[in-house]
Every structure is written in structure tokens, then in C-alpha cells.
Write a structure and sequence with these properties.
Elements (H helix, E strand, L loop, with lengths): L11 H6 L15 H4 L20 E10 L1 E2 L5 E2 L2 E3 L10 E10 L10 E8 L2 E2 L4 E2 H8 L10 H13 L3 E10 L2 H9 L9 E2 L16 E3 L6 E3 L1 E8 L15
Antiparallel strand pairs: 1-5, 1-9, 2-3, 4-5, 5-6, 7-8, 9-10, 9-13, 11-12
Helix pairs in contact: 3-4
The structure holds zinc ion.
Zinc ion binds next to α5.
């Protein structure tokens, strides 16, 4: 466990180079056995066919940290923000957390969902922050005396171990066209117009629903996206979908 308060990216020069870490070009031999030994298991398969939308349920998933854009549009491991509408402009740290579904023998292994803007900002009504809650669910430790920076460091430490948890997902249809219009008009972004897989049209295949629906406002076709609606520690809940097993 690294020491709390140890800031990994404390200046913009280091932060700007962060996304390149681990992505250095490596010379690959065209005869690399990994390129030639793979057999085509299904010559009729279509690599361009859309993946089916992740069905609603609870999935075992692996959590990792994902860089966040700061207010200068630089990618950082985490960054400091302040928003007038959030706790009267109290400053806070935020990062993104990516969840990768574990479904080894199923069709959804490796499907990724991102929880954006996981914040150290304390929600006055709940008396805790998203970052502290998530840290505990991922098996990390928090305490009431921690500073926001220590909470963020604790979350990053927990995420570095690529911990597993249970994510609950649900289909959600948002109309991007209507959202863009509202943005341009300076209006509040419309809420998703349909939530929950079972409310989407049924297909001939039992239990399988069609993610394509029509926006009731502008009549455009919209495809449902699987969204995270709940995150649980492994001791709090169990997967209802997938074949996710502990390593
Ligand atoms: Zn619309």
C-alpha cells in the first residue's frame, strides 16, 4: 500500500504524458506465433456486427482506474474540480472507474462500462462521498479523518489491485439529438425516455429484448445503452448473470 498524500501527477507536464505510459510502441515480428497460430473459429462471423447490449442484471466485474480529463482537457489519473451547482462550489477530486464484465464462458466477457466522475465530494445528506463508498466496496479502507486527497489515493490504491465487485446494470435509452437541442437552447438535458430492459420490445427469442426504440419527442431511432445502476462489494451481493468466477 502506497503512502497517503503521495501525489503521482502534481504538475501539468507529468500529467500530459500520463496516457502514454504503458503504450510505448513495441517492435513486433510479422511471424510472431500469436499472429499466425490463431485459427478462424467461425468463418461466417461478422466482426462489424454490433455486440448485443449487455442484459440487465448483476454481473461480476473487475474494476480499474481510467484517466479523467481535467478542466484544461488534459488526461490525468485524477483531477481537482469545482462546480457552482455542487455543494456550493466546494472543490473535490474525481477520477473515472472502468468495470470489465467477467463472463468467461458467456458472450459478454470483457464488456466495459465506465462510471465517470467518481468524486471525493461529500454528499451532505448521505454523509459520505462516492470515492469513499467505492473504495470500501472494492475492499479498500477509509476513515472519517481522511482528507479528500487521502480518500482519492485510497481509491487509486484499491483500484491498482484490479479488485472485483458486483455491478448492477440496466438498459437506458437517451436521445442524443434531443439532448443536443436542449444544450444549444440552454435547457435542462432530457432524462432517459426508457429505462429497464423488460420495457423494451420483446423479440422472438425468449427473454431477449430489442434495444432499438423510437424517441417519443423527435421520433429518431435510439439504441439502449447498458448503464451501471448499482455497485456492490462481493460480500454484499452475488451475480445473477454471467459465469464470473473468482480468479
Ligand atoms: Zn429525440
Amino acid at each position: 500500500m502506497s503512502a497517503f498524500g503521495e501525489v503521482t501527477y502534481d504538475n501539468s507536464t507529468a500529467a500530459a504524458s500520463a496516457p502514454d505510459q504503458g503504450a510505448q510502441a513495441v517492435a513486433i515480428d510479422p511471424n510472431d506465433p500469436r499472429l499466425v497460430s490463431e485459427s478462424l473459429t467461425d468463418s461466417g462471423a461478422d466482426a462489424y456486427a454490433p455486440m448485443p447490449t449487455l442484459p440487465d442484471g448483476k454481473w461480476r466485474a473487475k474494476a480499474t482506474q481510467l484517466d479523467i480529463k481535467d478542466d484544461n482537457r488534459q488526461q490525468q489519473r485524477y483531477a481537482v474540480f469545482s462546480r457552482a451547482k455542487m455543494e456550493n462550489g466546494m472543490p473535490f477530486f474525481a477520477t473515472n472507474v472502468q468495470f470489465s464484465v467477467i463472463d468467461h464462458s458467456g458472450s459478454f466477457d470483457g464488456v466495459q462500462l465506465t462510471e465517470y466522475w467518481v468524486r471525493t465530494l461529500i454528499d451532505k445528506r448521505k454523509g459520505t462521498s462516492q470515492a469513499a463508498t467505492l473504495t470500501r466496496k472494492l475492499g479498500g479502507k477509509t476513515s472519517a479523518s481522511m482528507t479528500q486527497q487521502q480518500v482519492m489515493q485510497g481509491l487509486l490504491t484499491a483500484l491498482a489491485a484490479e479488485p472485483e465487485c458486483i455491478i448492477e446494470t440496466a438498459w437506458q435509452a437517451d436521445c442524443q439529438s434531443c439532448q443536443e437541442k436542449a444544450k444549444v437552447a440552454g435547457q435542462k438535458s432530457p432524462r432517459p425516455f426508457l429505462t429497464g430492459m423488460h420495457r423494451f420490445p420483446a423479440t422472438r427469442e425468449p427473454g431477449v429484448h430489442d434495444p432499438i426504440v423510437q424517441c417519443p419527442t423527435c421520433k429518431q431511432q435510439v439504441k439502449a445503452q447498458a448503464r451501471i445502476v448499482g455497485i456492490f462489494g462481493l460480500s454484499e451481493s452475488a451475480a445473477t448473470r454471467g459465469t464470473g468466477q473468482s480468479k
